[in-house]
Design a protein that fits this description.
With 125 residues, the protein is α+β, with helices and mostly antiparallel strands. It contains two helices and six strands. Helix content is 19%, strand content 26%. The longest helix is centred in the C-terminal third of the chain and has 19 residues.
Length: 125
């Protein structure tokens, strides 16, 4: 699937592929740049607030991580795989996910800033 992007700058909380809204990504495997990290437990499609909650299984001792939608680089619907443009270590070192604060603006700001810093470094922006 090719991304259809209307954005000129990366936005952490919006899918780059605007055609993903409403697509059921639950249960899809998540592939980081350097390998699989788990599967989608939950996906949201709020404009300016979309994210994935990923169950990492044994990779990070069964923890869940929250990935802003902007890190999704593509989706292979046939193989049920979601590809993210981050390394495993970057995801592992992100601000820890806590079910009770997922909607907290300060947490979202920290998470968006964290992934934004990596985006700027990796893309040279």
């Amino acid at each position: 699937m090719t991304l259809r992007s209307t954005q000129t700058r990366w936005s952490p909380w919006d899918f780059r592929d605007t055609g993903l809204a409403g697509t059921d990504l639950s249960g899809c495997h998540i592939e980081a740049v350097d390998g699989e990290i788990g599967e989608v437990h939950e996906a949201t499609y709020e404009v300016g607030g979309s994210y994935l909650v990923v169950d990492t299984g044994p990779w990070i001792f069964g923890k869940k991580v929250m990935l802003p939608a902007g890190v999704v680089s593509r989706v292979d619907h046939a193989d049920r795989r979601v590809f993210v443009d981050r390394m495993k270590e970057q995801i592992k070192n992100a601000p820890e996910f806590d079910e009770n604060i997922r909607e907290d603006l300060a947490y979202r700001d920290r998470l968006g800033t964290y992934y934004g810093e990596w985006y700027d470094r990796d893309s040279g922006l």
